[in-house]
Design brief:
The strands form two sheets. A six-stranded mixed beta sheet has the order 2-10-9-4-5-6, with no helix packed on it. A four-stranded antiparallel beta sheet has the order 1-3-8-7, with no helix packed on it. The protein is built from no helices and ten strands. β4 and β5 form a beta hairpin. The protein is globular. By secondary structure, it is an all-beta fold.
Length: 114
């Protein structure tokens, strides 16, 4: 199974982006999915997560109220809607399973200019 994030880009502060995470294989709906990011010189951190059925979500404090995680298990896809982006959101964003992580994909770059 592989998960690949996409949808990043270069935006201005206050703009929005919607990231997608597409999973290959048939196990997507078996696991919670997390969204992670790694900024230059910093460790990778989890910023959001969504349960297998999409009912429960979690957000790190810095993105609460701005980011929304969702998923469509029929499409093997998770989404991260990011609103009111800030310069400190600049990072490479990744997705992975929570309970059984797989090899990290390439991620997608998000650059926010202030």
């Amino acid at each position: 199974v592989q998960l690949q994030a996409s949808g990043g880009g270069s935006v201005q502060a206050g703009d929005s982006l919607r990231l997608s995470c597409v999973a290959s294989g048939r196990t997507f709906s078996d696991f919670s999915t997390g969204w992670f990011r790694q900024a230059p010189g910093k460790e990778r951190e989890m910023v959001a997560a969504i349960s297998r059925n999409g009912v429960t979500t979690w957000y790190t404090d810095s993105v609460k109220g701005r980011f929304t995680a969702s998923r469509d298990n029929a499409k093997n896809t998770a989404y991260l809607q990011m609103n009111d982006l800030k310069a400190e959101d600049t990072a490479i964003y990744y997705c992975n399973f929570i309970e059984r992580p797989v090899a990290w994909g390439q991620g997608t770059q998000v650059t926010v200019s202030s």
